[in-house]
Design goal:
The protein has 285 residues and is of the alpha/beta class. The strands form two sheets. It has a five-stranded mixed β-sheet, sandwiched between helices. The protein has a five-stranded mixed β-sheet with strand order 7-6-8-5-9, sandwiched between helices. The chain contains twelve helices and ten strands.
Length: 285
């Protein structure tokens, strides 16, 4: 009898190895009934779903889930998912006169949610350049669709989102890319609720083994690039650049130094209170 595990993630090409594993029945072979939920609202929506026990685990931005665990989310990191940084595109609408990356820090930012990646990385980026963003500069647009509408209508001026996901809209002229920003740590991790870790520890390990094995296979598959191009409607040359700059984790080890780097930057940017105590973030098997 299979054990159900509810896993969530964004509708982006990073998660294709998991979708392929589901289609091939790889989770079922290990006794896992993996139920997938797509979260268009990104990390902020997923941290809320973890808190509300709507899912058992999620693949989300490293800085977002660490922030939320510090703020009381009863979840733990169980593995890195993508070990390379995320390349954030900094965008504005086609009709917006803004055309200089250095001018964005006084503008209105569209964010999916407070605490989401689009919110956190805007602050971290500004802070790295000696700039400070005020809360009044942020406007919630929920997801990429909301951002496209809000940018087009000049309701917001700036939007941070994964570069290759937004590139079709840049190519079509709907968005202008003003710049790029690399996350200064591995971009995606897998986190699970304490509840599922206590109830099904062995099955969480089995789920992770499937994910790591499939990510390992995906990184050496000659079909990976054409599959991503077809499924996510992206140009082959764009997928090639993305694929050859992305590495997935093939084990569950998480660096303590990486965690301290993230917490340092979150406190420096004022996202986490400087006196906040960081609880145990990583699941100890």
């Amino acid at each position: 009898m299979s054990t159900t595990i509810r896993l969530g993630g964004v509708p982006e090409h990073f998660n294709l190895p998991i979708h392929l594993a589901r289609e091939r029945g790889e989770f079922e072979k290990r006794g896992i009934d993996l139920q997938w939920t797509t979260f268009k609202g990104g990390t902020g929506q997923m941290t809320k779903a973890l808190r509300n026990q709507e899912v058992d685990a999620c693949i989300l931005l490293t800085e977002g889930i660490i922030t939320d665990i510090i703020r009381g989310n009863e979840s733990k990191l169980v593995s890195i998912y993508v070990t390379t940084p995320l390349c954030w595109g900094i965008h504005t609408g086609a009709k917006n006169p803004l055309d200089n990356y250095q001018e964005v820090f006084s503008e209105i930012y569209g964010i999916s949610r407070f605490g989401s990646g689009s919110h956190l990385m805007a602050i971290v980026d500004a802070n790295s350049k000696g700039q400070k963003l005020d809360k009044e500069q942020f406007s919630i647009i929920k997801n990429l669709d909301g951002a496209l509408s809000s940018l087009s209508n000049l309701e917001v001026d700036v939007f941070y989102w994964e570069k290759f996901t937004t590139k079709p809209f840049v190519d079509s002229g709907q968005l202008k890319r003003l710049g790029e920003y690399l996350t200064p740590w591995p971009c995606f991790v897998i986190a699970a609720t304490i509840d599922i870790l206590e109830r099904e520890p062995e099955n969480i390990v089995r789920m992770l083994r499937v994910i790591h094995d499939q990510c390992d296979a995906f990184m050496s598959s000659p079909q990976a690039i054409p599959l991503v191009s077809k499924r996510y409607e992206q140009q082959i040359e764009d997928v090639e650049r993305w694929y050859h700059s992305t590495e997935w984790a093939i084990h569950g080890w998480i660096s303590d130094k990486m965690l301290s780097n993230v917490i340092y930057n979150l406190k420096l940017a004022g996202i986490v209170d400087k006196t906040a105590h960081a609880p145990e973030l990583v699941w100890k098997r």
